[in-house]
Amino acid sequence: MPDYLARLNAEQREAVETLDGPLLVLAGAGTGKTRVLTTRFAHLLMTGRAFPGQVLAVTFTNKAAREMRERVSAIIQRPAEGLWLGTFHALCARMLRRHADLVGLTSGFTILDADDQMRLLKQVMAAGAVDAKRWPPPGLMAVIQRWKDRGITPDRVTPAEDTDFAGGRARSLYAAYQDRLKDLNCADFGDLMLHMVEILRNHPEVLAEWHRRFRYILVDEYQDTNLVQYLWLRLLAQGHKNICCVGDDDQSIYSWRGAEIENILRFEKDFPNARVVRLESNYRSTRPILAAASHLIAHNTGRLGKTLRTGRNDADGEKVRVVSLWDSEEEARMVGERIEAAQRSGHKLAEIAILVRAGFQTRAFEERLITLGVPYRVVGGLKFYERAEIRDAMAYLRVLAQPSDDLAFERIVNTPKRGLGDTAMRRMHEIARAEHIPLASAAAKLVQAGGLAGKARAGLSDLLHGFARWREQMGREGHVVTAATLLDESGYTEMWKADKSPEAPGRLENLKEFVRALGEFETLNGFLEHVALVMENDENAQGDRLSLMTLHAAKGLEFDMVFLPGWEEGLFPHARAMEEGGERGLEEERRLAYVGLTRARKLAIVSCAANRRVYGNWSSSIPSRFLDELPIEHIQREGSAGMARNRVVDMPSVFTGASGLMARKPRTIEAGAWEVQARPSHAAPLTVGERVFHKKFGYGTVTAVEDNRVDVNFEKSDPKRVLDSFLERA
């Protein structure tokens, strides 16, 4: 047996050696799917089943394609050349160059980037007399890209697929956009696949040519394919039918990007006599982590089913920790304390990660890590105060606090659009330079002198009057209420509400978190100074750093220690996912939780907070239903779930033993910094009409009781539903 096969377990070897006919490899988290895929590729070449150019290997990222090429070269012990190996779009671009004339292009067509696509679409909308303010171009672009992801050309848009964008004109605008692309000999990224699918559908001789070329097809991350990718693969696989798809239905978490979990669920129907090989030996995580993840995902009905078992020799490990906390601030302190304890134990920060459900959650942890001096990096995105919407909001507040801040004023004066073009901006700068006055004062002079007309004058005048009004309001109502009012009345939040791109809801959540952060400071200037120092202190952090990212960005990564905060109803599972997707949305949220747990090699720490603050107001939270779906025997509950304050706990053994870490030496730390005092049970259940006291909300009267959840009308806060363990009889 060749060495490259001898290194595989029985399941992996079966997947590699099953060469003929359709094959689905269900590869659970940490089961070695990349090894299987690359070894199968190399095995085809080593056994002479195919020449390099006869294998089509498809990945989702350039990084994955590079790694596959390197691994295949290492196995066959020579450079792997002449391969058809790459991402869906790269391979389709390569194919389309050969057949561009069949879709009205030449082989030298240009591939537009996102900015050029948007610029072209705006031109098309302007030519069609569509009001871009009422119907924002990003919304139409999102609709067009969804159609392309589903393999739908303009002539295939049915009434069921159509939208009411611009009074039902989305389809005609899509057609005009496509015509304009062809006139310019251009294609956008969606076209690369859409055009190739149309060519393969409509030109049997071309399809036959590719059937002759490709004897074998290998596909990575099949659960993430969208409909047009699925159609392309099915068309190409009709020849030899030797298609091998590797994926995990339990890790399909990208429906918002067009991914269709049904592609992997119906594989056996699409390819009769298909063979299914399950990779279930996990070499990443300990037994308690795998048991918790498997028990959780078993609650999903839309899955093919598999059960992960550990393949590690040191499978026994710490139970999954479930920590209940009083509020989000305590949650951030708990995470910070445990990270510091890990550092003191000799653990590398690079092997620790905080995985959040929503991007806005990173702020509290970023600020805590900066306070503690813990270096970190945000993976797959910008740090909180570097995000465009936060920089815009900061600029508004800087102008509010300091009208002479020209850089801030210039950033927001036309955001959202107020009809100010280059000419208007040039006039403002000329007045400011000539009279040595701030740009905002120059803008006021320009308006008063009648130097602007129409929309530009009205928009700039409204903004300047707005700042005068908001400064007066801040003196009366404070900076938190004023900031929320400013973002609404300036049209800034409305701009993002009208934006239909997938990123827009997250930007709105970040703005809410931004206003919440303001509530932690007594003055606006204090907040602005704090943010400036945060940005300065965090510049160019290098070396050993902790990773902070969303659960979506964490897929494919692994760490010794993983924190999973915010497991509360509405946050995780996310309310928007369930509102838009119903049961399908809930199941995808559960798959996301499964992905989070299986990122941990040695220790997973899940946490939830009883209270979170939104727009300066405290709201009670209900623990996530996912916590109830974790197996009791494999979790350890801490915090308000039953741990007494100031209890002494052992640091987990993850920090000791292997990899040069210290030999096991129990450490004790005071848990009071993060654990909530567990109140004794009420002698009798609370009843309607009773007067109660809540630590955050003060005194109130019980209006309804449902199990351990109590509705209370608070005297100095809005009515809320809280857990009875957080109430005292007054």
UniProtKB/TrEMBL annotation:
Q: Which GO terms describe its biological process?
A: recombinational repair
Membrane-spanning parts: none
- Which cellular component, as a GO term, is one annotated location? DNA helicase complex
In this chain, ATP is annotated as bound at 27-34
Residues of the UvrD-like helicase C-terminal domain? 287-556
Record EC number: 5.6.2.4
Annotated UvrD-like helicase ATP-binding domain ranges read 6-286
Which reaction does this enzyme catalyse, per its entry? Couples ATP hydrolysis with the unwinding of duplex DNA by translocating in the 3'-5' direction; ATP + H2O = ADP + phosphate + H(+)
UniProt family annotation: Belongs to the helicase family. UvrD subfamily.
Purpose of the protein: Has both ATPase and helicase activities. Unwinds DNA duplexes with 3' to 5' polarity with respect to the bound strand and initiates unwinding most effectively when a single-stranded region is present. Involved in the post-incision events of nucleotide excision repair and methyl-directed mismatch repair.
Q: Output this protein's name.
A: DNA 3'-5' helicase
In its UniProt entry, the species of origin is given as Roseicella aquatilis
